[in-house]
Description:
Largest sheet: 7 strands, antiparallel
CATH topology of the largest domain: Pnp Oxidase, Chain A
Oligomer: single chain
Mean pLDDT: 91
Number of helices: 17
Structural class: alpha+beta
Number of domains: 3
Low-confidence stretches: none
Number of strands: 32
Distance between the termini: 30 Å
CATH superfamily of the largest domain: Electron Transport, Fmn-binding Protein, Chain A
Radius of gyration: 25 Å
Helix content: 25-40%
Amino acid sequence: MSFTDLRGLIDTLRREGDLAVIDTPVDPYLELAEIHRRVIDQEGPALLFTNVIGSPFPVVTNLFGTIRRVDLAFGPRPEAFMKQVVGAMDRLLPPTPKALWGERSLIWDALKVGIKEVPASSAPILGALKAERPLEGLPALTSWQLDGGPFITLPLVYTEHPEHRKQHNLGMYRMQIFDHSTTGMHWQIHKGGGFHYHEAEKRNEALPVSVFLGGPPALIASAIAPVPEHLPELLLSSLITGGKLPVVQDPRSSHKIPAQAEFVLSGSVAPHVRRPEGPFGDHYGYYSWTHDFPVFNVSHMWHRKDAIYPATIVGKPRQEDYYLGDFLQRLLSPAFPLAMPGVKDLWTYAETGFHALAAAIVRESYSREALGSAFRILGEGQLTLTKYLMITDQPVDLANFPQLMETVLERFRPETDLFVFDKTSHDTLDYTGGKLNHGSKAVMLGVGEPVRELPAVYDEGLIDEITGIKPYCRGCLVVSGAAFSDEPELPQRLLKRLREKGTRWPLVILADDAEIASAQTPFLWTVFTRFNPADDIYAETALKRHHVGYELPLVIDARMKPGYPDELIPREDIVELVDRKWKTYFQA
């Protein structure tokens, strides 16, 4: 099943009993977000809030908060089609008549991909226009108490290259509402909309922008997909939906807009204008700080007469972005070998905010080919922001991180297979490098035959200054001790004591709480959002021919450090408020 608009998915969820309708008055300031977080924690239903204080529009959240709902929203066809396309490449090169006939069903499906312009009479989005104070009454949410203000959290930001207008970008960049006609525009590094704005600034021109809210669910998936810069996201949306995307000319702007969207905000971003945006509780699970970003000036807003405002809540995993990211990786993974020869499979981990950790299965047909594939990955689009990259040539399930970790550690040769690169770029939301957009990277290889047997049970006795010890998987031990602020040099002492013991554990993680070893999500979130490779990897080293060779064990200091942003924790009075009102939200 494919859905051509948001309400088709909502109606299906309602019929299937996977939508909770909340008629109780709910405040978009903190209260709504707290309800959402509790429901998604329990893998509960999608939520439709019909009585949002201060707004005439209902709000829908948690549409993609389970694997089942993501599969329902997009169906099996997109993944099957992508696999068919990749499988046909060899058969269609060269494109002989016999080969073309053999792939006729694929070619027929490909002809359905694209956009089609419809008349205004067939475009529900043009049902209502608001040109004065266009953002007034929009139910934008404030999710966390230290947020700089209300944010639009599911904006589909559409831009066109100022010179080559056929080159468009559809991205999801959060937007803080400043007043009734202006918002921030959080264009991070390595984002297509930011590239368009950079070109417009060089010409000293304002960049026209349209922001879509709602429409086909495929638009949301396409906006966050890590596709190459010049691949049109609107075409990807069409591919996922299985038919041409209906668009209509905006009578007041140069852009064509999705005919089935719920809202469209139209305006421009002026050159050389910045305004402080943030803080914001983001998908890393912390507050991103206040920084200067461009400003979106909204000239008018179109919306359906009965528009539904789509929103999401971000925070510590797992949230909706986890399930959407999983779908997109399954969808796009068959294409990785085409874009990066030698890379058989690739996975980035939603539990870490995606950019903090990636892993790949690569070909190793000659010595060190895997290292070349690692460099290829780190040079590809948004993957250039990867902080820690793990590489193997073994057939493992990359989504199963303990299995991957064990596979790599069994084969990892520390003197040749660990590379740390300082003074590189970081994701804008990753503050472990100490400076915005700056940090370091590490590549860890584990290929070939095993070179060691990994311990599974810790039996090496007490360790001075260590209060908690727990294995995460074979070969990886998590320990806890004093906080960094009290004992910043604890990792050096821990390393010395482990070496004196002759430990069999090749990798030891120093955390604030060893209990993170209990499951994949807390382990990945804590470890990979709390260390910068150049600062926080400890080992004995030897420099030879400009190469740093390491000796086991490796110690990673994944404790919270001074200067890191605050962890996201709900405000106590809001928690108590939702406790008191809980039964009124879900009346039978």
